[in-house]
Queue: 3 jobs
Job 1
Amino acid sequence: MNVNRTDKCGMIDRNRRLWFRFNGRDYMGYAGDTLASALLANGVRLAGRSFKLHRPRGLMTAGVEEVNVLVSVGTGGATTTNLRATEVDLVEGLDARTVNVWPSLRFDIGAINDLLARFFKAGFYYKTFMWPDWHLYEPLIRHAAGLGRPAIEPDPARYEHQTHHCDVLVIGAGQAGVEAASQAAQSGARVILVEQEPSIQPLPQARVLFMSRTTAIAYYDHNLVLLTERPADGLARERFHQVRADRIILATGTFERPLLFPGNDRPGIMLASAAKTYAERFGALAGRQIVLATNNTSSDEVAFLMAQIGAQIVATIDWRCGERILKTMGRHGVKAVLYRDARGKSQKIACDAVLMSGGWNPNVQLFSQAGGKLTYDPLIASFRPAADLPSVSCVGAANGDFAPDYGITADWTLPEDGGKIFVDFQNDATVADIRQAADENFRSVEHLKRYTTLGMAVDQGKTANVNALAIMGSLTGQSPGEVGTTRFRPPYTPTSLGAFGGLYTGLLFKPYKQTPLHVANMEAGAVFEDFGGWLRPAVYLRGGESHHNAMRREALAVRNTIGLFDGSPLGKIAVVGPDAALFLDHIYANPMSNLATGKARYGLMLNELGVVIDDGVTVRVADDHFLVGTTSSGADRIALMMEEWLQCEWTTWRVLISPVTTLWGNVTLSGPKARDVLVSLGSDIDLDQEAFPHMSWRQGKIAGMDARVARVSFTGELTFEISVASDQTEMLWDLSSAAAKPFSGAPIGINAWNLLRLEKSFLHIGADTDGTTLPADIGWTKVANRDVDFVGRRSLLWTCNQSPDRLQLVGLAAHDPLKVPPIGMAVKSMDPHRRTDGFVTSSEMSPSLNRPVTLAMVRAGRARIGETITLMNGQTCQIVSGAAYDPEGARLYV
């Protein structure tokens, strides 16, 4: 236990032992450890596998740039996968498992890929999986893709969101960041200082909000920065912060980059700065017999520290002196290196760790996301910000301001043999891959990235990019600056979906609206489903009947006696003002200004492309007052659309738009006994056919309540839609139910309601239409001839939109009266250049007709009435027009 732990340094609490499990084995660490530091202290070198070749890997870094050791922790819904071991805090009982291995880390079947590596060169998937058909390989490739496996069960953890505003946001609490925050606070600015590590102490200034264990993951327009915090208080797994700042100072420091030499990926080979961090913060040694490989002066203090804490530097291989590592040895951990000394002689030396320092890259990810430009600086052999942005600046090492004595010899001349030289460690992208990309003329940095997958690992190129760009430059005769860089994309580090979602899950993510009759519907046996964001009854079950049988029973009740329907969610929008009629003439595809007061009219609404987006019945309450009806899912959307047109285009028109859907509840009585039930409730409205005809609207008293009654029908039966104040709806429902009981009336769900409209061939927006359906496709052929320039009219005049060969809504009569054509089933085409001639949109077995009733979109359907077509399932149908039930519409006028 803890064979590589030193007591000469470290900030861990050695009085608090913590037991944890890694890949089924028990280990001991201390409070303050990360999983990575505890593994290192326990002498665990083999801790991961690479993605493509499944090569053995160990820790390479100590921070967010780690790519080699990714783990899953937790069980069930609490499982979190693809976590960097360097950022997993050690807690009692932690159970971590390496991802991307099977059946075990030490014996991974996927390692056969390493033996076949010559077949897996850059771009191999583009060249290999094209013949005879990509889909032949797709299942296998998809199975092999990915790293860890996400949990199937819901995540029980808590995630929180917070929003902040400040004058100055400083990201990074190193020396440069602390100085910047202190100066800003002294000037009176409100300052937020962000630091991803947990060990930095906060500033004493009262105007500085210090946020440790917090990572800035994204910069967006107008100085919006997103942060993710790993709280130490245990109240949440993560907190997601949105910060708006007047000015942003990036003190994000640097990343050390690997050296390039054959076999540079073996476990036990890590960055020198990582070894320093593990020793200073955790008292964990990278090894006891260490080879130090470097090309700059920053590794000097690492060598001094290692000697102080009891590790032996057995060799220092300095690129500045012409020395090079030629080869490394050891399968599951480095055991020796073969190197060329300054005299040109090859030497082999045993070791258990190699610490490498290939130079430092300013951390410019957030600066790049903000739109900042980068320039190559040969003095630091890396890219640095070219100039500050108006409200974003980099300071300290992030700006390329390294220590005055920093000296580097960056030599990207590489040997042709000696083994694989890895550039992107997770994706197994090698120098050979870059050479192949150059040979095949993929020289743009964007092409290089996608062809080789360089920079596409979980670190997004933090350790790989500069080396890759420099190698491409050396192969193509360009400097790294001429090769250029890609623009970094958010997030800065992999971020859990839970952090983005926060508390907005389940009903908090999508809260369902409930009608005023929700309780009454529950008591009546309703089975609720989501319809346009409302919880509405699909069916009302009785006894042990199935949903299908309940739907048929309810539909027959409407046809034979009476049904009660909860129509409260249907959209209601008051449009009032002297120009209300003019406004609606432009909103609807059909005219509304000539609608008489007290009358109702069915209308279609289009978008600017001429596509049908909603339908409903509008009534004229007064000369300057209309009540627009919409679908339940379209109420909010249509109200916003109206406001946009009014405020952006027709700004001088005197119109007020007021959504009133939730102010009114609705009980709809439909069926041949509907008038009898309504009369029995008592009303001062004359309900006779002559006084109150179909497509009319009245106001008055129903059962003593103020009511609005519309005589419209979605079922083809005599129907009264009764709207009362929301808080009176339940009373109206109870009274109506009691009055309907002598007629064996029944509550009707959405499923039966849709079946009834299908028997009448009435349109259902969203079911019988899609994002391409025009008015002419559903029989409205004359609307484009109107002289009013309504929304979408000009698009209807396009030649392609007037083609008679478009899909058109028609009825289908199935030749087999016992077989219902499936919804979505395609229509076979007789044209050899087309596979299909349309598809079924609505279909169900009619309990009134004892045969299927079907609507379909068929190419040139109206010109093919009477023709027999064949569906893809072999079923034959005849194209028909008109309603299947009561085609004359006589039942509306009883």
Job 2
Amino acid sequence: MGTTAFLMSIPTSLNLPPLPICAILDEIRFHLAKGSAVLAAPPGSGKTTVVPLALLEEPWLAGKSILILEPRRLATRAAAMRMAAILGEPVGQRVGYQIRFDRKISKHTRIEVVTEGILTRRLQQDAALEDVGLVIFDEFHERSLHADLALALCLDLCQLREDLRLLVMSATLDTEPIARLLGGAPVITAKGKMFAVTTEYIERPTRGPLAEVVCSAVSRLADLGGDMLVFLPGSREIRDTHQLLQEQPGLADRLILPLMSELSQKDQDRAILPDPQGRRRIILATAIAETSLTIEGVRTVVDSGWSRLPAFDPRSGLTRLQTVRVSKATADQRTGRAGRLGPGHCLRLWTREEQHSLPAFHPAEIINADLAPLALELALWGVSEPNVLLWLDPPRAGSFAQACALLRGLRAVDSRGRITPMGRKMAELPLHPRLAHMLLQGRSNGLEPLACDLAALLSERDPLRGRERGCDVRDRLHLLATWRKKGDRAVDQRGGDVAPLRRIDQTAAQLRHTPNQTGGWQPEDVGALLLAAYPERVARRRPRQRDRYLLACGRGVRLSATDPLCGEEYLIAAQVDSGHSEGRIFLAAPVELATVQSQAPHLLAREDLVCWDGENARVTAATRTTLGTIVVEERPLADVPQERITAALLDGIAQAGLEVLPWNGKVRQLQARLLNLRQWLPEEDWPDVSDQALAADYSWLMPYLGTMNRLEQLKGIDLCAVLLSRISWPEQQRLGSLAPESISVPSGSKIRIEYRIDEPPLLAVRLQEMFGLQQTPAVCNGRVPLLLHLLSPARRPIQVTTDLASFWHNGYPQVKKELKGRYPKHAWPDDPLEAAPLRGVPRRR
């Protein structure tokens, strides 16, 4: 079918404009007849709906199906409905779709639009995909984890099936890397956009709450024709903006609608389809509306400039949502929404200068995601090392290792990374491996209804509203039970949100083996089931704290100070972010230590420990029971060998540093004497007793610790004896002669020498005591002259010299002139070399 014939097959009643993609359909057919390809086409070009229909009767397809992968459920359903409408058929005939818990496919279906996870499940169940001839990866630039995994598996399958074609489509993708990954596949490019979109920037960076900034921008553009699409980072910002816009009198005639993934299908359709009453709409959307979705009537886009992306921390095993600036590629996608059906306008709430600093693309999800689902899928595929497959960005080694460790703890894989029977059962469930393990345990314990409700609740948006909603999971379960029994009104009165409750109920029903299965549960059952999903998130309350806890994985977390769960000794933190210095708990339930001991004894470790207690500055010897980093119980340990106590004390000294030892001036002088000899006599083997050398290995101190076990006992150590023990008795004698502690001066006084490291030794002596001495005193067999501080009678330095003879000749006459009048009782002879040295004031005769 040529381009003209294809366009003629479209019912004229739909009034579709000519689509840019039609100009390159023949080129697409030509390349796909030979193999896989990459298609780069701008937003609104028609690639999602036109290309699959145009390829349906290609000879190389041989009557097989086309699978189209979409990154979101809303786009999946909308694309299938659009193509079915073009063909004039209901969804489920030649065009069908399948998303989680919703499937409209029949024996006549040739084009299947599915979410990326559905393809992964289908590949695992039918590795050959014999009835599929083409797999289309739409909007691949979003680089979801499932899309990268599905592409890697399809490329692996292509090694066995040469007839299987892959078509990777995107509006903003850097096409060259993906073309290389596909073995040098051709890149087909569609030129031009559907309609022109004028792009406006603000003059100065925004300030103030985002909702207020967006509300002001929307009000300013309200007079532009058509509907308006506003991009916001998340549901909280949508709710805040929605409330502010409803208070604007100038927008009273507008229909203000949210568009988020957690909304019901009915509410999503209200935002996507034109209003039956013809009212103009303001649609407040998350990233769900960025791609693969035409919202009829939109002529104006307001882009807040923010995205919310998950970031996984493999060290803690926790994920936090980060609000970040949009990428240039994302901004272009959002702008394109305004030009789908006619000329449009886009207001970007950032400056032209800020535009230059935006990243080109957001990083692929595989870079920052929790890789546990991917690791389980690879194990089911028979792959324990991801590098055997082809990836655009391979999984990071640290994150993948953390994911494999989690799967081993959940008994999903063995020590060699091979999938276990438990892992196969977990992979069959449309849940994260944690929740799948919890659900299987609930089935085995007779708690399947509760486990299904918990899995659904933890997969969907929180049904409780308000800032003071508390973190107790059991409150949500009671709210769900109330809604099932009494309906929407009873839930509204309790501050609940009906929409997520409906989704939770639907998901739980799909997970249950037996329809309408019910069963009672006890409060402690909730913590027991959550333990199966989050074993490393057992949290114990910190001593003398009500709202701060320590997770078994080592992370500190906290509750709101007013949360009813405050004060519980043990919790299971089901939803918690990694935070910065401390994470925040969003959903949790109490758990008894006895439950952990009986249900997960492998999590507990018992060890006889002799270790340093830094808080109390002493060695602790105890039998300690731990749950990860949590100390569950500690009992004193008797009959501990002294060498273990001494080793622990040395650890404590190392942690505290050398300063805890009883240093004094005498010890420091001995240290300096030894270090000086080491420097002066490098040919001899004097020990290195510098602080750096001593702190590098404290074993030198061990023989002197005796039965000590506390820092305060170190005061009794004779450090001089310790340092002297580093040298032999003959060396100690040489130390006294080479670097004596003191020296005799001409007056007969014995004066202490001050030894310094990396400086000459110093001798401070009154000038009159040196009369008659011509040569400067020296140590180390006369090799090292002393630095003389010649003092006045008041013991103040009047001259610093290492050349005494020069001082007598040149400096002394001036000193005598200045000081003789000030100190007339002291001797100031004309010739100091001929004068007798004096200790004090000479007596008068």
Job 3
Amino acid sequence: MEKLESLIKDLPDADGARRFFEQLTEKSPSQARKLEKKEGLLSDILTLAAFSPFLSATILQNPNYISWLDRQRASAKVRGKDEILESLARFALTNSQIETNILFARFRRRELLRIYLRDIRSLGVIAEITEEISNLADAVLEYALRLARQELDNRYGVPLETDKKGRELAAKFCIVALGKLGSKELNYASDIDLLFLYSGEGSTSGQGSRGKTANREYFVKLSENIVRLVAAQSGEGSAYRVDMRLRPHGRVGALAISLAEAVKYYRNSAQKWEKQVLIRSRASAGDADVFGKFFDAVENSVFSETENVEDALENVRLSKEKIDLEKVSKSGFNVKLGRGGIREIEFIAQALQLAYGGRDQWLRASHTLISLARLSDRNLVSEKEHTELSDAYAFLRRLEHRLQMENGLQTHVVPKNKEKRDLLAKRVLCKNLSEFDRELERHTGNVNRIFTRVFGGKASAELLPAQSGEKLKEADIPRFRKSDETPLKISPRLSGMFAAHLDLKKELLGTKRDFENENYDELLFDSVKKEPDFARRIAALRTSWARFLLNIVVSDVAKKLPLEKNKDAQTRLAEAAIEAALFITKLELEKWFRTQIREFPFAVLGVGKLGGGGLDYESDLDLILIYDDEKPLPDKDLTHAEFYSRAVEIFVNSLSSFTRDGHLYRVDLRLRPDGKNGASSVGRSTFLNYLQTRAAIWEWLALVKLRTVGGDLNFAKSVENEARTIIHDNAKQIDENNLKEETKSIRQRLEEKKSGARKGKEIDIKFGSGGMLDIYFAVRFLQLRDNIPDEANDRSTIFALEKLHAEKSLNDEDLQNFSDGYRFLSELDHNLRLLIGRSTRLPLANRSTVEIIAKRMNLSSIEDLIEKLTFHRLSVRNSFESIFKN
């Protein structure tokens, strides 16, 4: 038919798509007719068929998946483990007669339809695609664990252990992910490398059909059952191939090992390559606390402070030889193991992490792309090398995915056959085979050149910092006064920003910037609007944003930008980034729905630091996203929830997705109605009704700072004003003692949870006693109790304190304690963020850093800093307790 031919003419395998539709018409005429009525869905299904014969066969075997995919495809978000786990539970309920291992295999294939469609439609960057593939494996493992544990508990009862006080407690169990699953970089057809840990020895309760048994036997059987459920072969294959060879003692080791045994092994017996494996490890299923205790105990054995560069490189080089990195397939180039392949990128990152991670905890990231970015930030790879490695990683992983999704097999070999290579070139979106060959040669050549540079046997002084045409030199870093240290020495974590933007040197030194009047909205918009596609727009947004932030940082280090003006500039920069992201979102929606969107009634409301206009370095963007549920949509087949779910995903990805150009902000949507269980955006009427009828007191306290930060401003401000009225009206109707007790209880829980497990003598300036949360909770309680909302033109904490004092809600002493305490704690927090990143704890063990902080705060010594901090914390806590006394 004419419509079909127009949809397949530009696909990589038009003939394959055509054959698929003919087979579907013959097998399920009703589904074929439905597809003909929905052009968008038909296009998606034909595209899947053209990119993956494996998934084409899956659809033909299960035509009902088409209707399921129709419901799923409007959302482009990365689904977390919990969401996928819920889907698996529903799938199991409707397929209760199927053997569990077959159930898992079918569910995984169905989910791959959705994930691979996002992949080939470029609706997610490579890191997001591999994260979701990993979340799928986590969900299957979690479900398998629950089933297996229920069966074992019925046989032997619950496994028990005895704590230090002699009490019997239920023993805990954790499935630890290693390798690509451990770093959330799983492929479509990867093995999953696992380690099974249990918390302690003992025996089961015996309240089962077979009586009591030792914990070791119980957990070994549990592990065997999990592997059987997940990996057992059937006529439909298995969900995953499980590899247990990386456990302690390899094939001869116990399938499950106690926490104490594991710690002892990795501290005393593990070989270097085994410790290297733990760089990419995490809790995949079960009790994450078991893994947390394990890794805390062995982390310093993995990243040793005494490790020198030469030994680290040599050990990783030996690991390379052990796995035969130079293996070349006779059938074609091996994307994973070949020269310049993915393994070389991974080993570059891991070698430098091992060499420097012992003395620099920030380098201890498991994900390859994040590791490369942080290594670049520390100038351990140059910015040029970072770009080359990140680009190569994205290209090679995309190529690997196309190879594997051809037939759903674990393959890494690029075929030599010209016809197959032609098809592969089209599937990785190259114009022709020549372009594909050039790109493959360029990327692998870059990787191998950097690999050779890192592992070339040079002494550490020659090896680092990275050699490139843009080597960062001390002379390149601007000085502001003769007596000043350079920004690089004051804040080493910013060295990567300077290395990436040496072209700004003259601009930074030559012009006094007027931050109060800097038009970030216009500047960011101009940088984005001229770009032709989504990828280039978010790259331009990140590059421009980084340059503006760097200007703020440099002036901050030079003490030329007061704290209040710094936070104001950062807040306005964030709001400009939000507007640019909304512009990008609108363009993508227009492309998606093939129509111009004239009205986009979408409100972005900020809370937290953004709501209060006090954003600081590495602050999250706490957002609530509201749409007008009465305005018509460009696609009548979609609901408002479906349309805006798609919009939210594009918007959040524009702000927070990690690319080779970095990322802007972490976006936190947890304060939306119903939290993580609620929709990512809600309609106006739903939001206001929720506030009126179901919002809890802790939500009122958080939403006191609700403020319009982007979107349709008239719509947003009307929602903001109505929401504030509802919150304060509700607070007036509640008994004052109830409001007081609930506020105090929330504050105490946060203090116990966040500040209870203190690290040594470190002081928590946010969550600890007398910290910033004491001030925040006291202010918001008084605002609700006495119906004193924020002013539209100033939402800051200091202004709120002064207004409360003017309205007689706060006495002179408490005003003094809170104002002085807030100014001191806020300045201390700001300097912590500048020097070491986002941390709520004062690192007293790191005296050199604390000395710099004291100097920047015009204090004479560390002792002076601690003395004043103690004074303000005691004063703040006294006023807090005075306000909340019974």
